[in-house]
Design the sequence.
């Protein structure tokens, strides 16, 4: 097996601070290499360093050897497209928003591989058929779903025939079914050369196989054969990462829920339309006090819209929603948002936001400290504003703020999808636990069926 | 909001000019219209620090009054138009489609007319009236605030942060204070600084074409045109109102800062 890419003591610095500690690795032909780690562990920096894409304020040391030759940044840049290619995280950012899908692939054949226009088009259409986009070639990227756009981006990026493919979080934000498709596509596309994938998703690492490197805070903690590392992890951090996968969670749904519990909300033959498209119709269900209800379904099927409709944030087209709990005030029906920073005003500190709430509803201040301890929120977060606090802390603060209002119903709209697996697990567990204690019903939306299965009493599939 | 060094220097110039105006009005021994035909077009001296004009009136007193008048008008216009523009801008988003449409029509009508023409029209109806000038300039200027505030507020109204505050039971004033105002305030301050400069320029332009403030009152544009015939005999006199207008506009632009 020939070595396609070899790194020797590659490190990345900003000024004197080391962001990525020296790392050496070899990418061999036909043997995929996967780098696993949480956000902020320096994975993406490594990919950027290999490509020569580091921003100006970052400096790099060590050698990058491509096809057995040490190359400078400029030499590596000359290989872009033909030999070395990187798939960016968000397909939307790498595709031309105004150009038809098939043309974006065609242009690669035409200008990189220098084929005739007609021939390029034929090959491009062929390619799209292979990735299941046969009927969608004429669409612009914004008319495609996330998974389809990612497949298009991968097809276009690999059309140049590169032997070394770097994929940076290729499955970010995709549903499980779509995710598996992307992984297979990557494998198929890389069978002539090799594939270096960066991911935080243990399942992706497992599917790709080959060699696995686990990184934490810019440092390599463990490496070896993927199956070996994942089945018999030696490092604590690797174990934690594996345990944070929803399918590995223990059942969290509290068993104490009784059938005699009062119903708080009845939805009858609900129909919802958005932009002239029927999302679902004839949906009926009942939510009981203290129950955790999960909604699963592929992206775009109306999961979030259903929750918003239950909170009267969206109008329904037909059917009825009846709130049976008459004693509850409107502010006891609340929502947790997907993107924590966007749900807070950044103009004042979090403590000020909390004080505002206490003042408005006359809440007992003594309740805050124990709750903060339960949510393991350091007291210091109250002095900072929402931009200076990590996503996990902010989502826990959002839970704190919601619980102070004694909610009867909490709609959690993918509350952990922007968080790291380990943090996501903690936050989900806390949410389910505290809400059940408070007798608050939770409507949990997730694109991960495993997560919902482990946490919910009732599952609604859209 | 933190001010940069340039913004501080702009503010300092403005405060300096205001102090000059106040001290001049309060302590000058001469009145604004007191003529002395024995001493016309005099160069600056110990008795008349800035010289005398073609009627022998004290330039210092007249400049002090003119600067004060300009400031009074520009600050009043700034305050009125920013308040009205911000209030209507927020209302257009919050009040629903109907309110937005009606306000949109009004604004489009105002935008279809060149600002100076509107002001000239008002000024021609009641020449020399300070309050009509003030009304006319404010009427032209609030549109800009309205458009910017409306555009920014639309984003904020849709934001999860405001939605969440609303669900938790916070009222309109709180939502404005915590969500909308922090988003629009930088733009409003910048617009206000430019608006102040524009009000001064508009007033001076009207004075220059004799439809603004009328003699014997002192006004920067009016003084410019009155002293114009003497530009070769007494250039220092013509220079005074011109330099002050330039300085005021410059200071307001410095205050506006870099971001637009």
Sequence:
């Amino acid at each position: 097996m020939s070595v396609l890419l070899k790194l020797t003591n590659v490190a990345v610095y900003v000024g004197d601070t080391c962001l990525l500690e020296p790392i050496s690795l070899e990418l061999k032909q036909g043997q995929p290499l996967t780098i696993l780690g949480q956000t902020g562990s320096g994975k993406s920096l490594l990919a950027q360093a290999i490509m020569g894409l580091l921003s100006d304020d970052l400096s790099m040391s060590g050698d990058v050897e491509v096809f057995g030759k040490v190359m400078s940044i400029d030499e590596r840049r000359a290989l872009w497209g033909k030999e070395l290619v990187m798939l960016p995280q968000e397909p939307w950012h790498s595709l031309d928003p105004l150009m038809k899908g098939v043309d974006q692939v065609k242009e690669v054949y035409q200008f990189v591989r220098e084929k005739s226009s007609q021939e390029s088009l034929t090959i491009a259409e062929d390619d799209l058929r292979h990735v299941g986009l046969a009927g969608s070639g004429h669409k612009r990227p914004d008319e495609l779903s996330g998974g389809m756009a990612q497949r298009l981006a991968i097809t276009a990026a690999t059309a140049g025939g590169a032997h070394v493919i770097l994929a940076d979080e290729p499955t970010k934000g995709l549903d499980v079914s779509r995710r598996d498709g992307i992984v297979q596509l990557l494998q198929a596309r890389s069978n002539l050369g090799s594939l270096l994938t960066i991911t935080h998703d243990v399942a992706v690492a497992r599917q790709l196989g080959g060699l696995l490197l686990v990184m934490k805070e810019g440092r390599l903690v463990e490496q070896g054969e993927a199956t070996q590392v994942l089945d018999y992890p030696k490092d604590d951090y690797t174990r934690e990462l594996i345990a944070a996968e929803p399918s590995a969670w223990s059942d969290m749904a509290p068993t104490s829920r009784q059938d005699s519990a009062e119903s708080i909300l009845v939805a009858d033959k609900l129909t919802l339309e958005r932009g002239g498209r029927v999302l679902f119709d004839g949906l009926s269900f009942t939510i009981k006090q203290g129950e955790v209800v999960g909604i699963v379904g592929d992206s775009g099927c109306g999961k979030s819209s259903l929750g918003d409709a239950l909170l009267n944030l969206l109008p329904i087209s037909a059917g009825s929603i009846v709130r049976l709990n008459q004693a509850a005030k409107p502010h006891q029906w609340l929502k947790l948002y997907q993107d924590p920073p966007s749900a807070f005003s950044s103009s004042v500190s979090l403590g000020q936001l909390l004080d505002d709430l206490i003042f408005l509803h006359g809440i007992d201040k003594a309740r805050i400290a124990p709750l903060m301890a339960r949510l393991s929120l350091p007291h210091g977060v109250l002095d900072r504003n929402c931009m200076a606090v990590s996503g996990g802390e902010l989502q826990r603060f959002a839970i704190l703020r919601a619980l102070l209002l004694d909610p009867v119903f909490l709609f959690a709209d993918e509350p952990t999808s922007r968080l790291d697996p380990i943090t996501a697990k903690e936050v989900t567990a806390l949410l389910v636990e505290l809400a059940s204690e408070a007798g608050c019903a939770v409507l949990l939306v997730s694109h991960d069926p495993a997560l919902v299965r482990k946490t919910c009493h009732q599952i609604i599939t859209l | 909001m933190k001010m940069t060094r340039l913004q501080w220097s702009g503010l300092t110039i403005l405060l300096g000019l205001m102090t000059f105006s106040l001290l001049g009005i309060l302590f000058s021994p001469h009145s604004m219209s007191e003529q002395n035909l024995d001493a016309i077009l005099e160069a600056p001296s110990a008795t008349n620090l800035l010289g005398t004009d073609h009627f022998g009136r004290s330039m210092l007193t007249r400049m002090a009054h003119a600067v004060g008048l300009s400031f009074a008008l520009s600050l009043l216009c700034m305050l009125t138009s920013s308040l009205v523009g911000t209030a209507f801008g927020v209302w257009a988003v919050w009040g629903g489609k109907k309110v937005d449409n009606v306000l949109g029509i009004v604004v489009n009508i105002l935008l279809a007319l060149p600002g100076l023409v509107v002001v000239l029209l008002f000024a021609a109806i009641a020449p020399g009236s300070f309050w009509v000038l003030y009304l006319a300039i404010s009427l032209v200027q609030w549109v800009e605030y309205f458009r910017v505030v409306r555009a920014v507020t639309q984003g904020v109204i849709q934001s999860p942060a405001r939605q969440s505050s609303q669900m938790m039971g916070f009222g309109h004033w709180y939502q404005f204070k915590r969500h909308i105002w922090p988003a629009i305030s930088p733009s409003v301050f910048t617009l206000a600084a430019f608006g102040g400069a524009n009000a001064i320029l508009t007033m001076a332009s009207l004075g220059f074409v004799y439809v603004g403030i009328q003699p014997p009152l002192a006004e920067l544009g009016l003084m410019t045109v009155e002293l114009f015939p003497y530009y070769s005999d007494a250039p220092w006199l013509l220079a005074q109102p011109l330099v002050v207008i330039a300085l005021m506009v410059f200071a307001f632009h410095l205050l506006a800062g870099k971001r637009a």
